[in-house]
Amino acid sequence: SGRSESMLSLEEAKARLETAGQSHVLQFWAELSAEESNALLEEISKLQPEELLEHCRAAAEAASRHSSADGRLDARMKPVPPEFIGSVRKSEKEKLQIWGDEGFLQISQDKVAVLLLAGGQGTRLGVPYPKGMYSVWLPSGKTLYQIQAERIQKVQELANVKHGTRCTIPWYIMTSEFTLEPTEKFFKDNEYFGLCPSNVVMFEQRMIPAVGFDGKIILEKKNKIAMAPDGNGGLYRALVDNKILEDMERRGVEYLHVYCVDNILVKMADPVFIGFCVNKGADCGAKVVDKAYPAEPVGVVCSVDGLYQVIEYSEIRPETAELRGPGGELLFSAGNICNHFFTRDFLKDVAEKFESQLKQHVAIKKVPFVDGEGNLVKPTKPNGIKMEKFVFDVFQFSKKFVAFEVLREEEFSPLKNADGAPLDTPTTARRSLLAQHYRWALAAGGNFLDEQDKPIPPKHSMSQNEDPPVICEISPLVSYFGEVKM
């Protein structure tokens, strides 16, 4: 296989690695085939020596500081003030209506897009493919991607009916090296689930090397560096690298709804949330749910020294998490669900001015590696550092931040673990969706009959471990969020 134009020579690769103090990457060079050495040169060509040097230094330094709740943040944390919070539960009906109308207006004018963070594989679910391709065994057999695609179609249709338009909500999908090809193939094979292919824009986030505690890049094969996606906060760099901001500008997109792939209840381009943020003049917004209990492992949206951010549950002391307000409610109750609003201008600002200031989060992982003899070793304890940026770490750069509280049972049921785990499994995700559809049917005046045509008594509240009395799945193409077609 011939060398591509942009590929480095061996001398250039050596010089680049030497600058970064990573010469060991070529230690097996003499044993590689032409194809293997080309693959390694291509990987090295993507690494900038100064960036690499800084990355490896920062990783080793961060790992040595890696600690949990040390109380440094607790005294400086304050809850989001009530005037910056909208709420499905507490805001007046008329306000919710005004916000919904505003959202539909923006959608009808082609100003709204959705952006999906889909860099993760289904490893914890025990499958070798992207999470969005997972089916939680609904009666219809629909996957997460299909449910989301159909919700986009439906909300477009609702905006069109309301405003007599033919609008488009572009769908931007950030993948990683692991998920891009299978995702593209899956969409093609399924004819983009009825969406226009030119309105589904896939792009890839960067991969960065995993580093050992000694600050050296880890080799996973003799000719392959162990790489990992740079976290969902890699979005801001990827928007620039892939010219996505220009694409948004060309289409006239002003507002973005950004979300994670694994929430089966996500309201795509939620008109009420978008309308609330636009109405408040916000450049950045976050949907939150009430924490279920003080120690629930979700990040908390709050302000620290007057700047908004998400504090991870591991960074807060238990006594702070337990604090309560005058009405007995948790003081820090705004649980982050990775469901955000950004203006395009804000994203542009972040990408151009603030991306380099984003905090690096350290994940200490078991990373398979080749030893000095070239043997593959699967470590039994953590040996590597993966550095990640988080999508929500940009809140601090916002000029006008707002939060919007939604009901967990209506909008948040993440799929993270294989069945058998206590929470966030295919079973809990399926139950959440089917229970929601059952509630919609009851609210619309529906009655269910058994095989003998006898009414099945309605059940208005169910625990998380309970299936609804009736299995009832409603296609997103029929109802976006429980609205009834008259």
Automatic annotation (TrEMBL):
<dbReference type="InterPro" id="IPR039741">
    <property type="entry name" value="UDP-sugar_pyrophosphorylase"/>
</dbReference>
<dbReference type="GO" id="GO:0003977">
    <property type="term" value="F:UDP-N-acetylglucosamine diphosphorylase activity"/>
</dbReference>
<dbReference type="GO" id="GO:0006048">
    <property type="term" value="P:UDP-N-acetylglucosamine biosynthetic process"/>
</dbReference>
<protein>
    <submittedName>
        <fullName>UDP-N-acetylglucosamine pyrophosphorylase 1, like 1</fullName>
    </submittedName>
</protein>
<dbReference type="InterPro" id="IPR002618">
    <property type="entry name" value="UDPGP_fam"/>
</dbReference>
<dbReference type="Pfam" id="PF01704">
    <property type="entry name" value="UDPGP"/>
</dbReference>
<keyword id="KW-0548">Nucleotidyltransferase</keyword>
<dbReference type="InterPro" id="IPR029044">
    <property type="entry name" value="Nucleotide-diphossugar_trans"/>
</dbReference>
<keyword id="KW-0808">Transferase</keyword>
<comment type="similarity">
    <text>Belongs to the UDPGP type 1 family.</text>
</comment>
